[in-house]
Amino acid sequence: MNEMNELYYQDAYLRDFDAEVLSCTPIKDGYAIALSQTAFYPEGGGQPGDHGTLNGVEVFDTHTKDGTVLHYTREPLAEGSAVHGSIDWERRFDLMQQHSGEHIFSGLIHKQFGYENIGFHLGEETVTLDFSGPLSEEDLLKTELLANEHIWGNSETIITYPSEEELASLDFRSKKELHGTVRIVTFPGADVCACCGTHVTRAGEIGLIKVLSCQNRKNGTRVDIVCGKRALNYVRDIYAENMKISHLLSANVKETSAAVERTLHELGVLRRERHRAALTALEAEKAALREGQPLAVLFTEGIDTRDLRSFCNQIIEEKGIGTCAAFSQREDGYQYVILSHSADLRPVGKALNTAFSGRGGGPAEMIQGALTGNEANIRAFLEEQF
Ligand SMILES: [Zn+2]
Predict the structure, then answer these.
(1) Domain 289-385 has what CATH class?
(2) What is the pTM of this model?
């Protein structure tokens, strides 16, 4: 760490700066540019590298190589020339909100349960945290509240560089063994952690922390959180979605799940009624069939393949019918089952699928599948076959 030319360590809020181009090296897809000083934060400590511009040339990523900050561009910049740098501040501030929120959340988990944060990914959409022990939903909701209370307390973030002796007696979180100068970031009352990233000056700037999900992993817990503007956007999206449900079901916006439950219950009742009515109609059709006729074709709706199969079986056995075909209507056409004790159905199935854009098949005595077409055409087609 060289605080002299890494301007983000002097001021994490610096958006613009002037510098000299020290080197411009061609790389695979562009150029790696080193500057006399920079406000571009290079990827490190779980925080992605900054984006921005140098004299209007886009910087698409920033990394450190052998202690030098490298700005990646598609266009070259002349060595020795003066450049004006601007970082993509909206993106950087978002990363500062997520990163600082992660400290507070992980620190509070550590304080309450003694777990370490063993994985941290600051993604495009969410922040993913892996903790070294089990956490219940209740634990996470409690920690979410504590983290937000810490934010409302708006305490100042403290950055220190303790001596080796001071470090030895300091209780802090750290991801790896540390050597040389160690930068300690303290969110008073919530977290003390060795970190090289950029952080908000006061906790209040994080705005809001929201836990989105948790999953049990081997011996630990994976938690997704969002902070700051991301948390606001998340709440807005969920609110908009819930408002749609509320309007669709004419339900109070805080009682949508009860309305969905009622609707699903009603749907279940209607489906069962439709099923019963369809079976009654099929029974009537069966009763009207002549004993021993070569082919029976039945059309119905709301009956699944298993029931169609058992109905065809009954018709063949009770009425001594050669071939029975049953079609059940669904949104985009029909599901079908054809059973036969007298014919090889495989060529019939192929011809049927070709004629009615269908799919499916099966052994010689039973085929099943789905197709589209109208009832009269399907009947006429089958009557020609048998
Ligand atoms: Zn940090």
Answers:
(1) alpha beta
(2) 0.80
